[in-house]
């Protein structure tokens, strides 16, 4: 048994940040991580040639001040996402090459419908109180319907509906029929609106840290030193009048307070004694993670740039729903990231690795040409079946959850405090939100330890 002031459970960016802020404030910390690595739903790998690849969360954008502050603390520079050239959209059996937000050569009816819906989403998201979305004027109404229900009522074009559902629900790595409209609006609002959520330049995928997310989590881990314990999945958390006892594989930690910084669905797999308050316990049962497969295709050069393409493409319903240029800050090699989410990710998960690879490469080749079929490396991360993520990349709320159990997202339960991107009022669902939640939880604990 080891005695510390605070035990932090989970070494993703929420847990790393909470532990770091607590240590810097003069408190002793133990950080327990179930995996054999830190980073949580971010995961940077490096090859012998120095190429680094982000297999999980990767991008940063304007307004994400918390992650940018961490980057400054550890002298991690950033570089802008490559956006030159034309993007590709495949819809209605046709392929469109375009610059801007959407291809204006589509049917004017589809373009107008998408524009009207987008404007309405922006207007609605402005009405969401970030700290308490369940108190919004129309919260009860919006929490009774799904994103899919709302789109059914507000899109007059099936093509527009398909594109919008794939884009918005994909941010939750789920299907539109699974996500509460209130939760969808809350996540948009937390990032400043739908433009940021779905945007690349000046949006959620505006830039990347040089060296990947591991260039930030690595030095954080180094500073924490022997406070970090890997391969220690937490099984039980026991509170009493004097403190908390945290039981993990091969280690027991006695602390004054504990911060649980794991995905909500995973937090529900821990045994709490005494039992958590009913609203928090039910919240664990009602906020699942989605399905996402992130595949990085490595080529000798980013050949699509020579063809006048940005590497960004979108083809709902295909085995390669979304692609984006994921090359590093160097001119070579070229890296193309393929992201499949929701129902398509689940379908691909049912295929064997070889069949899944063939399907993905064939789908991308239809857009970018035959060179796609011969990558020098193929790096797949299936977050859908990640034991200690419960899926990826964020938990979502089905109908009725936010208005019934939302207040339990951040409320401490005795000596147990909560962190994780889903609990952040700002940038909910992004790495920046995870950092913010870790800072909030650390501040709560410090206030109690004084």
List keywords for this structure.
single chain; 450 residues; Polyamine Oxidase, Chain A, domain 2; Guanine Nucleotide Dissociation Inhibitor, domain 1; 3 domains; 7-stranded mixed beta sheet; 16 helices; 35% helix; 21% strand; Flavin_MAO; Flavin_amine_oxidase; FAD/NAD-bd_sf; oxidoreductase
CATH homologous superfamily designation of the largest domain: FAD/NAD(P)-binding domain
- Total domain units: 3
Helical percentage = 25-40%
What's the count of strands?
19
Give the count of helical stretches: 16
Evaluate the radius of gyration: 22 Å
Question: Structural class, please?
Answer: alpha/beta
What separation lies between the terminal Cα atoms? Answer: 24 Å
Instruction: Based on the coordinates given, report the CATH architecture of the largest domain.
Output: 3-Layer(bba) Sandwich
Shape: globular
Please give the largest β-sheet. Answer: 8 strands, mixed
Mean pLDDT: 96
Assess the beta-strand content as a share of residues: 15-25%
Could you list the spans in which at least 5 consecutive residues all have pLDDT below 50?
none
Using the coordinates shown, work out and report the CATH topology of the largest domain.
Answer: FAD/NAD(P)-binding domain
CATH level 1 name of the largest domain:
Alpha Beta
Structural account:
The protein has 450 residues and is of the alpha/beta class. It folds into three domains: 2-41 and 213-276 and 413-449, FAD/NAD(P)-binding domain (3-Layer(bba) Sandwich); 85-101 and 199-209 and 291-388, Polyamine Oxidase, Chain A, domain 2 (Alpha-Beta Complex), CATH 3.90.660; 106-191, Orthogonal Bundle (Guanine Nucleotide Dissociation Inhibitor, domain 1). It has 16 helices and 19 strands. It has helices at 13-24, 65-73, 108-125, 139-143, 147-154, 158-170, 181-190, 194-198, 214-224, 264-267, 278-286, 303-306, 342-349, 353-368, 401-405, 431-449, and strands at 2-9, 29-32, 44-46, 52-54, 78-80, 86-91, 94-98, 207-209, 228-229, 234-239, 244-248, 251-260, 271-273, 292-299, 309-314, 322-325, 334-341, 377-382, 416-418. The strands form four sheets. Strands 1, 2, 9, 10, 11, 12, 13 and 19 form an eight-stranded mixed beta sheet that branches. Helix 1 runs parallel beside helix 9 and helix 3 (108-125) crosses helix 7 (181-190). 53% of the residues are buried. The model has no long low-confidence stretch (mean pLDDT 96).
């Amino acid at each position: 048994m080891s005695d510390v002031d605070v035990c932090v459970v989970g070494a993703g960016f929420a847990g790393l940040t909470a532990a770091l802020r607590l240590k810097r404030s003069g408190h002793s910390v133990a950080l327990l991580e179930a995996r054999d690595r830190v980073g949580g739903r971010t995961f940077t790998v490096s090859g012998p040639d120095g190429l680094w690849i982000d297999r999980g969360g990767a991008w940063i954008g304007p307004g994400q001040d918390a992650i940018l502050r961490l980057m400054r603390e550890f002298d991690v520079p950033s570089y802008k996402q490559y956006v030159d050239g034309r993007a590709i959209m495949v819809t209605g059996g046709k392929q469109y090459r375009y610059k801007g937000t959407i291809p204006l050569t589509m049917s004017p009816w589809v373009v107008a419908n998408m524009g009207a819906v987008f404007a309405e989403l922006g207007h609605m998201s402005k009405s969401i109180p970030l700290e308490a979305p369940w108190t919004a004027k129309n919260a009860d109404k919006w929490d009774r319907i799904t994103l899919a229900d709302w789109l059914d009522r507000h899109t007059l074009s099936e093509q527009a509906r398909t594109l919008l559902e794939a884009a918005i629900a994909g941010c939750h790595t789920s299907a539109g029929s699974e996500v509460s409209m209130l939760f969808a609006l809350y996540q948009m609002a937390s990032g400043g609106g739908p433009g940021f959520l779905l945007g690349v330049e000046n949006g959620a995928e505006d830039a990347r840290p040089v060296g990947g997310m591991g260039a930030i989590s690595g030095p954080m881990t180094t500073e924490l030193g022997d406070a970090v314990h890997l391969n220690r999945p937490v099984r039980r958390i026991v509170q009493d009048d004097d403190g908390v006892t945290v039981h993990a594989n091969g280690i027991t930690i006695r602390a004054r307070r504990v911060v649980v910084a794991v995905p909500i669905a995973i937090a529900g797999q821990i045994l709490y004694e005494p039992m958590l308050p009913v609203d928090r316990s039910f919240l664990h049962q009602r906020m699942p993670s989605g399905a996402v497969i992130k595949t990085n295709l490595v080529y000798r050069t980013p050949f699509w740039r020579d063809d006048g393409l940005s590497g960004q493409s979108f083809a709902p319903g295909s085995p390669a729903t979304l692609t984006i240029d994921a090359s590093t800050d160097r001119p070579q090699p070229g890296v193309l990231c393929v992201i499949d989410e929701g129902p398509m990710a689940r379908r691909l998960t049912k295929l064997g690795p070889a069949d899944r690879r063939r399907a993905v490469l064939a789908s991308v080749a239809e857009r970018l040409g035959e060179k796609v079929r011969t990558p020098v490396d193929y790096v797949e991360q299936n977050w859908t079946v990640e034991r200690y993520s419960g899926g990826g990349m964020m938990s979502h709320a089905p109908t009725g959850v936010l208005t019934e159990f939302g207040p339990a997202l951040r409320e401490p339960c005795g000596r147990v405090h909560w962190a994780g991107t889903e609990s952040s009022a700002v940038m909910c669902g992004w790495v920046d939100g995870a950092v913010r939640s870790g800072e909030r939880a650390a501040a709560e604990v410090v206030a109690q330890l004084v």
